[in-house]
Every structure is written in structure tokens, then in C-alpha cells.
Amino acid sequence: MIEALQFEFMRNAVIAGFFASLICGIIGSFVVVNRLVFLAGGIAHAAFGGIGIAFFFGIPYMLGTLGFSLIAAMLMTAVMLKNKTRADTFIGILWAVGMATGIILLDLTPGYNVSLMSYLFGSILAVPDSDIWWMIALSIVTLSAGVFFYRDLLAISYDDEFARLRGVPVNLIYFLFIGLVAVSIVIIIRVVGLILVIALLTIPPYIAEKYSRSLAQMMVFSTLLAILFNLSGLWLAYTYNLTSGATIILVAAAAFFISMIIDLALSKTRQGQKKNR
Q1: Quick one: which of 45, 105, 157, 272 has the fewest CB in 10 Å?
Q2: Please, are residues 66 and 186 in contact by the beta-carbon 8 Å criterion?
Q3: Which of 131, 130, 61, 134 is nearest to 102 (CA)?
């Protein structure tokens, strides 16, 4: 892996993976603790509609995708806060409509032939410097928001009704952080792909939650795990000439299943100890 760092594209991939991990570690912890994984997945897939709009109308990628994703995210959040029991249906509809709209518009774009795979798995080995600067800026914003709103995040993550009674602006914080989810997805999706964004938003926080005593610990541990998965996946992809995005996902998935096996083994051990007593 060290010898691979002599190449600029590999150094950029490592840097991009680090900042993607930092963003997803903080935002992903909020998503997992608040059981918003389906909503995050809906935003990620709906973002594909923004990609299609950007290319079809010839507007900047960032403007078209970010605008569409934020509108979809705000609509999903509004429905979720108003009627949680029906939110999954609405999210699923926007999820499907966004994907379908993006695919059709890309098909209709004159003289442009895009591979769906390039957006599903991204191209972390072809990250330009401009995207890295966008990720650095988003990392600063995300980290600042996490620190500034930490107490409020903690309150709404574990008991939003009690948080409302204490005067915490629950709805505002939901809109703010789900907006950050949308922005994160748009900035990262071109780099690592739609599927890897979802994997980094969910798998490291899920594992970290079981071994953390606080939300802050969970965010730190989740970020470290995401960095580990990225570096391991990049090393395997470079060594065995594999697709980097897919390799990173499989590394994260392997860690996920290993953690489940460990939990199952520990649970059986505890049950056996109780019976012996």
C-alpha cells in the first residue's frame, strides 16, 4: 500500500476516503441512532434524479443534483415529522421516482452516454482536487455542526418528546442534519458512488453503536472504522486489481457479519452462564 502512494491518484483516493469517512461517521451516527437509514437511502437514490436533471438541462452537476436532493430530503423530513407511520411509503415513492427520472433523463440527453455503474460505485481512484476541496469544506461544516448541536442531538436521539419539553428545536435540528445528509450524499456520490455512501453511512455506525457508551464515542469509533474499511478496501483493490468501491463495500460488509457473529457468540455465552448459576 505504501508503494502505491507514490501515485497521485492513490494519494487522492486515500484523502477522499478519509474525509468521506469523517463526514459519514458523524452524519451516519445521527442516522443510525434515530433509525433514519431508510430515509438516508431514499435521499441517496432520489439524488439520481438530480444527476439526470443536471445533464439533461446542461446545468452544473452540483447545482442540479444538490437542489433536487435537498428538495427531496426536505419533503421526506416534513412527512416523517408529521406522520411517521406513513413516512416509509412516501420515502419509497420518492426513492423510485428519483431513480427512474434520473435514468430516463440520462437516456434522453443528446450525445451523452453514461454508465449507471459509475454512479452506483463511483470512481474513488479518479478523484479530482476540486472534489477533495469540497469534501474538506463539508467536513468542517459537519464537524462544527456536530460539536455545536451535540447536546441537542443527544436529547432528540434518545427521547425526542422529552427534548421538545425542554425547548429543544427538534424539527429544526432534523431539517438541518437531514439537509447535511443530502449535501454529503451529493458531494460524495460522484467520488465513491451511491452504494458506498449508504454503506459508509450505516455499517460503521451500526458496529460502533454496540461498543460505545455515548454518542460522541460512537461518532469517533464510526469514523475510525470507516477509515479502516476504506484503506483496507483500497489496498485489496490495488493488490488484486479489483473495483475499489465494490471492494470497500465488501470489506465493510465482512466486518458487519463478523460483529454479528461475535454478538451471537457472546449472547450464547451469557445465557450459558445464567443457566449455570
Answers
A1: 272
A2: yes
A3: 61
Residue 7 phi, psi dihedral angles, 5° rounding: -90, 135
User: How many structural domains comprise the chain?
Assistant: 1
The dihedrals phi and psi of 2, each to the nearest 5 degrees, come to -65, -40
- The per-residue pLDDT for 251 is 93
C-alpha dihedral, 131 to 136 to 138 to 139, nearest 10°:
140
Which residues, other chains included, contact 205 with Cβ-Cβ below 8 Å and sequence gap of 6+?
A: 25, 28, 29, 31, 32, 33, 218, 222
Angstrom distance (rounded) from CA 143 to CA 135: 12
DSSP tag of 83: -
**CATH at 19:** 1.10.3470.10
204 sits in the region (left: phi over 0; alpha: psi -120 to 50; else beta) called alpha
Q: Residue 12 belongs to what domain range?
A: 3-276
Q: Which amino acid is at 35?
A: R
Angle of helix 129-148 relative to helix 8-33, nearest 10 degrees, comes to 30
Q: What does the pLDDT look like over 43-100, one tens digit per residue?
A: 988 888 888 898 888 888 788 889 999 999 999 999 988 887 778 888 889 889 988 9
d(CA 128, CA 123): 10
Q: 117: Cβ–Cβ under 8 A, 6 or more apart, which residues? A: none
